[in-house]
């Protein structure tokens, strides 16, 4: 069974064609790299999958059912989560508070209701153990490394029981050691049966963790092939237009 299928998807903004006839299939637990230069159509494609706006034409199927997303909450309701480059974390809060932000657990004592910090911390610690992250529930985000911040953002998607996670440049502007941490987190998601679309400009990252690479240029998909049948040199040629398609 396929998890996500795009059939002949296109998007126009007035007279501007951002996407043209894109077909894409993502299987459960598959890690796919999405590459292309700025303006290639990657962001538009991701925003259609994430429910930011509907396609102008074509179909989107999730778990073999046609879906019509008009808001991100529609995509989240079926199990699609996005980890954006800025991570959208609250720096002044703890890891646990960020993981449960907007989904806080409460307990009642008589007529009063209190935040259930103990249960939220316990559940967050379990999520970090699953991800094999050394991040702790009571760590404050402001003091975290880039790799730890990614762990918090990914733990939040795990809490939401995501089936597909779109990761937008997760290794941009972090150290080599932190890059290794993030790539390990992606491997943990794959091991848990969660599909990942990795949007990245970093060729080593894509060739390290992805099974397939999809290349976009000028709103068109110009390649979709197994990593072991391609090379960084070929992908670079496809991105720049030195090679038309693969």
Automatic annotation (TrEMBL):
<dbReference type="InterPro" id="IPR003593">
    <property type="entry name" value="AAA+_ATPase"/>
</dbReference>
<keyword id="KW-0762">Sugar transport</keyword>
<keyword id="KW-0067">ATP-binding</keyword>
<keyword id="KW-0813">Transport</keyword>
<dbReference type="Pfam" id="PF00005">
    <property type="entry name" value="ABC_tran"/>
</dbReference>
<dbReference type="GO" id="GO:0016887">
    <property type="term" value="F:ATP hydrolysis activity"/>
</dbReference>
<keyword id="KW-0547">Nucleotide-binding</keyword>
<dbReference type="InterPro" id="IPR050107">
    <property type="entry name" value="ABC_carbohydrate_import_ATPase"/>
</dbReference>
<dbReference type="InterPro" id="IPR003439">
    <property type="entry name" value="ABC_transporter-like_ATP-bd"/>
</dbReference>
<dbReference type="InterPro" id="IPR027417">
    <property type="entry name" value="P-loop_NTPase"/>
</dbReference>
<feature type="domain" description="ABC transporter">
    <location>
        <begin position="4"/>
        <end position="243"/>
    </location>
</feature>
<protein>
    <submittedName>
        <fullName>ABC-type sugar transport system, ATPase component</fullName>
    </submittedName>
</protein>
<dbReference type="GO" id="GO:0005524">
    <property type="term" value="F:ATP binding"/>
</dbReference>
